[in-house]
Amino acid sequence: MTASTTALTAGTWTIDPVHSTLAFSVRHLMVSKIRGRFTDFSGKLVVGEDGSAQADAEIRVDSVSTDNPQRDAHLRTADFFDAENFPVATFEATGFRVNGSDFVVEGDFSIAGVTKPVTLDIEFLGVNAGMGQGPVAGFEATTVINRRDFGITIDMPLADGGAVIGDKITLTLGIEVVKQS
């Protein structure tokens, strides 16, 4: 079966974490990028009969993985996510706009106790009948945030100028949602 661009039907659609990815990348030593992901997250999209939509998500920040245990442990500290005091990052949509066959979603993103507005450019990949669990819809989204806007201001300067870690964080989401019965 192939996905269609049929509009999402009214109801609650929840993130399928097994078939979804929440990833990030950041400049490292100003010459490369470190990539990572979060492995524990959830969320839902509620589509109204009138076509309106609401969405929210939660991310367990202690699930961060860059495939380097030492770096991951540092990311969980107060230098970055402060997972002990703020174990969950959240996103709550505040507005949806249609952009051709895709969407732009504005919302409030909270990390380590700081909330800022973000805009997600979302590619709608379509709806499929699924594999016996109900309809499935797919999306890909990206946004760029500045870590300093969220109070993550650790500086690790290099001896010859520059910094170990960049300020801009690219968030990339590959999301499948399943319609709840």
TrEMBL record:
<feature type="domain" description="Lipid/polyisoprenoid-binding YceI-like">
    <location>
        <begin position="12"/>
        <end position="178"/>
    </location>
</feature>
<dbReference type="Pfam" id="PF04264">
    <property type="entry name" value="YceI"/>
</dbReference>
<dbReference type="InterPro" id="IPR007372">
    <property type="entry name" value="Lipid/polyisoprenoid-bd_YceI"/>
</dbReference>
<comment type="similarity">
    <text>Belongs to the UPF0312 family.</text>
</comment>
<dbReference type="InterPro" id="IPR036761">
    <property type="entry name" value="TTHA0802/YceI-like_sf"/>
</dbReference>
<protein>
    <submittedName>
        <fullName>YceI family protein</fullName>
    </submittedName>
</protein>
